[in-house]
Amino acid sequence: MPVAELSQPVGIAALAGVGLAVVCLLVSAVLSVKLRRLRADQAVILGGNGREDLASHAADLERSFLGLRDRVDASAEQLEARMAAVEARLDGAVYHRALVRYDAYGEMAGKQSISLALLDAGGNGVVLSSIAHRETARLYCKLVRDGDGEQPLSPEEREAIRLSLAGETRSVSLDLKP
Question: pTM score, two decimals?
Answer without folding.
Answer: 0.54
